[in-house]
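[#protein-structures] MJ: dropping Phosphatidylglycerophosphatase A here for a structure pass
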Amino acid sequence: MSKENLEYISKEFMKRHISIADIAYEVFKSQIDYVENLKISDANIAVSKVLSKTEVQNALMVAINLDNLANKNMLDGPLQEAVHSDKGTFGIDEVIALSTSGLYGSIATTNYGYLDKIKPGIIGRLNDLQRETGFVTTFLDDMVAAIISSAEGKIAHNTEESDTVYVEMMVKR
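AK: finished. structure tokens for Phosphatidylglycerophosphatase A:
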């Protein structure tokens, strides 16, 4: 985990009013029906673990920088227009987010698609920010969805693993 990476990401999140608490709340809301005794602190821990992964940090930094460059009109030609307008056929923003969620298995990947479609909470706020003000969040809204879905996958897999260990222990009795 790179301290500099996380400081940079945190600073950029603050500029956009993105908090770990907002991200963790979306994770908690989506998983509470599936994980008995889930606490918001579990969701916070899962989000923090996802953010500590180097590949996630790198994808976030690319996403943030591309959005920042688009906000300054510093991308070349048609790329500037595609990123600035968040064209539905552009798709590279989703590809980066999908590859990120893929680090956490099929649950995270399918959850990412669902989140990208319904845009709950902070994802919707970022999407609306761009639509209403022109402030580009083309890549970052998808990356926040990827962080949420990855944390959901992490919780699901950890719960499944602990359930399996418990069942195996009971069978051995």
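MJ: nice. The radius of gyration is 17 Å.
AK: one more thing. The CA atoms of residues 27 and 152 lie 6 Å apart.
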